[in-house]
Amino acid sequence: MNVAQNAGLHRYTLPNGLRVVLAPDSTTPVVGVSVHYDVGFRSEPEGRTGFAHLFEHLMFQGSESLEKLAHFRHVQSSGGTFNGSTHPDYTDYFEVLPSAGLERALFLEADRMRAPKITEENLRNQVDVVKEEIRLNVLNRPYGGFPWILLPPVLYTTFPNAHNGYGDFTELEQASLDDCAAFFDSYYAPGNAVLTVAGDLDVDNAMALIERHFGDVPARPVPQRPSFAEPPPAGEVRGEHADPHAPLPALAVGYRVPDPVSELDGYLAHLVLASVLADGDGSRLQQRLVHREPLVTDVSAGCGLFGPFEARDPDTFTVTAVHAPDVTPERVLGALDEELDKLAGEPPSTEELAKVTGRWASMLHKEHDRITSRTLGLGASELLYGKPELLYELPGRMSTVTAEAVSVAAKSLRPDSRAVLTITPAGGAA
Amino acid sequence: MTHRTAEEIGRTETGPRPLPPLGVQRPPTGLSHVDTVLGSGLRVIAVRAATVPMVELRLRIPFAGTDSRHSALSEVLAETLLTGTERRDRIAVDTDLALVGSELDVNVDPERLALGGSVLASGLDTLLEVLADALTGAAYRPDEVARERDRLVERIAMARSQPSVIAREALQKQRYGDHPFTREMPEASDVAAVVADDVRALHRKAVLPKGSVLVLVGDVDPDAVVSTVDTALSGWRSDASALELPALPEVAGGDLLVVQRPGAVQSQLRLSAQAVPRTDARYPALQLANLTFGGFFSSRLVENIREDKGYTYHARSYLEFTPSGATLLIDADTASEVTAAALWEMRYELGRLGLVPPDGVEVDTVRQYAIGSLLTGLASQGGLASHLAALAPLGLGVGWLAAHPERLRAVTGEQVAEAALEFFAPTKFTGVVVGDADKLSGLRGLGGVVLP
Q1: What is the pTM of this model?
Q2: Does this entry carry the keyword Hydrolase (chain A) (predicted)?
Q3: Which of A109, A199, A379, B427 is deepest in the core (most CB within 10 A)?
Q4: A–B: how many Cβ contacts below 8 A?
Q5: Distance (Å, whole) CA A105 – CA A109
Q6: Residue B29 has what pLDDT?
Q7: Are B261 and A29 in contact (CB < 8 Å)?
């Protein structure tokens, strides 16, 4: 086995194609295990919106060696916690446990990679559960799906990029067992996945356990990854959403950003720009829009609809704000454009950049300290970049972003190529 | 591309495999710590956990008040505490913190004012200096107070449009009537009347070291950091003590109140009963009984109403602690059509917990989960700091945390059964259902529910 070592990480590939990342660290007696599959909601078929997420639920419903409910019980009776989540370009599953539970977690992940047991009864049950999840997070609350569900159909035109990843109730109800089988066989091959183990582990022992449990998962064809590229909007495109629960109007502005994988430096410059604009009381938009003028109650800016480093190209830069009813969206947009123009004309100060660098360094240390986010971050870096150590290099990379690069990023966020989504309170109902 | 059937996918030639046993668990290394009270009366808990070059900070100041405007005043105070001092304006506070990679947040509830944050270990002195500056010299400039007051009014409107907030406010009223503990969110009209002088007066009267606790966890030498804190906060002094919330009345069982929310597609079920705090001998058994009922995913409630019946995405039961006691809470959000059925199953599981208490396997599962999740919860600086801050008002600290796994191991099945019968009897619960009452007529058939 060819094991590459870098930054304390061990990285290799099993004969069946499964990529493995090991990150030993014995400071605490706990271990994290995750599997990332290279399929997210951008890959789900037309007519089956929400399917990737529904399928994530089904992966917890039993496998050849595990009855329904057994997965949860085995993780929790080992003292562990678990979860899964569906992103635009990948789906992840994880367990975090006292390190005595390492082999169990590997067994559980291998069993469902090899032979998940998907039944009609569990499918119908999980359609109901997912519908409750959507009622809870979208339909029954103010600003549900803002902006992650509502902005993409304004900014993008193709189905993979524009559709609702939570799914339409009618389409969820139409999901069949055969859809599940086709999805699993297409996308859940070991060669389309990354296994990450981080924390209190012995490398030789972990490699032996991984061989024992994953070694005989049969290799299957790995799908060709499609390009989801589409041109940026040719003008300013507008969308409106009437929210029956929202007490105040809101808007989201979406721009396209450089390819997060092939143009990482440009992408990082946009991340720094987002912080210069909206992180902390001293940031440009907080100062002006929240305190000086003031036009908005809250404003935020960032890369990625769920955060950075969660998607390949195309990815989105968003600015969102909640504002008083007597403030028009045009005033907020006008102020945003002025601030972007200022930064395009004159780069941010050294101190502004030092503030961003300091807070990013802290945030990345904190994520590293939480074993769940460390494990998932390493797995996502391997999956998207083929380079798990990127996670450790980010603070350094962020600190080398120049003021000029931030200026260039500000210049690229043009009013004639963006999406503007406005939320209008349509209540009556509290 | 052709693919296998679901049935073919779920089978291999070799068939099902046995679950591997657990390995040998390495115990956590002991925590080097100091737990002391400074001359000012401030308790300081400092713990070395050098996993990353960071320090987590939690400051808890008891912050009760009986004045009917206390909630409004304290919310404005929390929003403006870090917006400037004699020496720094709002932007300087943010800049000084950001340059050392620090975040610091303030929030307040009827029980305490809480500051929480983190910093690169190399910048701890700066964080302590900014903190001391705010504690002893927050300026509450009229323009900052006016702006935060206006934002707060908007945020209150936002919060009160959230079904979870509507449910929480209704539950507090149902449990405690008009007790100050229920005033978790002020009335917008009270907030609008707050002026800077009010906030300054409250700060002088209530932001006090005596009775408060500061927790620091991270890449520090505990002895050295305590003396650093002593010096940095030397100006924060008073003879008066921070004010603890008066003891709460016991929660009495009774009918659930239905709160009308027209147009809702989902209902919030919120039930509550009296429990006992961590210092009670029955607590470890109660903790295990609660896990069995609804305290984790593999609980009876979640397996029934989510995994079997699909009534909910989110259901759980948990303990809520105040300095004087504890209560049990049960939460579930369900579609309007199945709300009555979900409540029925909830009551069934409450009754069953006492009558058919957990068997040996169930008790072992919850015991392992309680011990293991404590271990993983304490494995990060932030997790450890938050646990310690939560224990501190009871006078507990690192020693209690370290001994808790042993306490859980000692609980017998009989003790869990006793706790189940004592604390989970259906008649001990009261609560609320928030939803579209026109779609909830099924509740009438169940009884024990008051509809509008």
Answers
A1: 0.94
A2: yes
A3: A379
A4: 277
A5: 6
A6: 82
A7: no
